[in-house]
């Protein structure tokens, strides 16, 4: 049985600042992440894991693995390179 999430639980699940308790996985970032800007927004830069894939298949694999991982609290992926298969 699935239960509905409260608005607060949904916010916590998707807020990058909540990654202090887990990893934020960014797959194929379109630009080099700006550490000072991320830190200013409350992102724990020490918990950011960047994945640079050689091709779409590798990016999709990395995205699926990160989403299955209980260690990743948030997975970001560039849509052009990391389409789910």
Helix content: 25-40%
Number of helices: 3
The neighbouring-strand order within the major sheet is: 2-1-3
- Characterize the main sheet: 3 strands, parallel
Descriptive notes:
The chain has one domain. Mean pLDDT is 77; it is low at 1-7. It has a 3-stranded parallel β-sheet with strand order 2-1-3, with helices on one face. 32% of the residues lie in helices and 18% in strands. The protein has 3 helices and 3 strands, in the order αβαβαβ. The protein is an alpha/beta fold.
Write the layout of secondary structure elements.
Elements: H1 7-14, E1 23-27, H2 35-40, E2 48-51, H3 56-68, E3 72-77
Parallel strand pairs: 1-2, 1-3
In short:
The protein has 85 residues and is an alpha/beta fold. It has helices at residues 7-14, 35-40, 56-68, and strands at 23-27, 48-51, 72-77. It has one domain.
